[in-house]
Amino acid sequence: MRLATGLDAAHNIYPYDPVAGRSPSLAVSPGSTLSTASLQRTQPVTMSIEFEGLDGSGGGLIAEFGGNIIGLFVGFESDGSFLFRSGDGGALPSDATALVQADPGSVGGNGKLVISTRPGTPILASAWWNGRRIGTETPGSAGQSEWSGTNAASVLTTSVVGSITTGAIHDVVVSYTAASDFLIYESLWLGD
Predict the structure, then answer these.
(1) C-alpha 44: how far from its chain's center?
(2) CA dihedral defined by 174, 41, 119, 44, rounded to 10 degrees?
(3) CA 77 to CA 94: how far, in whole Å?
(4) Are 42 and 26 in contact (CB under 8 A)?
């Protein structure tokens, strides 16, 4: 699966792909966990995944890194709202957590999801669906020096390694027909 960018024969512009032409630092297969990886958690990170038939209406996990002290979660809440959070892994709201929240139905179907976070003060987060920036971005004003507390991760699986971010759905994987590898681009912040 590859999201096209550029112009088609009718000169319609394909969606912007913020990671086009970049080489990922790591590719994680759907249904996989990481227990160890050499990720630079104090540096910005961008991640992407392509879906066919993505349906977040019932909630569910796309990916989770770290845990309930410092963690990153991307997926859907039980009402179908999209949620990307990075920083403090405890209960929300938190001044040390950056959030992107989008209304139910705004992320789904076929396309490419790109998320980006930058630790620091404030900690920041941004997300794109099919090349369009989505949701409401809320920076963590108190800041956070890491986007995840560990390198442990779960991608499209409920087999969680270590603890989990508080309040996020982890007992069900989001519904989808097909998915690409989950690509991680270290030291890349796309939010500005």
Answers:
(1) 13
(2) -80
(3) 17
(4) no
The two structure tokens encoding residue 41: 């958690």
- Domain definitions of the chain by residue range: 26-186
* Cβ contact 179:75 at 8 Å: no
Decide: 28 and 153 in contact? Cβ < 8 Å.
Answer: yes
192 residues of the chain, pLDDT tens digit each:
333 344 444 444 456 788 989 999 999 999 998 876 678 899 999 999 999 999 999 999 999 988 788 889 999 999 999 999 999 888 888 899 999 999 999 999 999 999 999 999 999 999 999 999 999 999 999 889 999 887 788 899 987 666 677 777 778 899 999 999 999 999 999 987
Q: Fold for domain 26-186? A: Jelly Rolls (2.60.120)
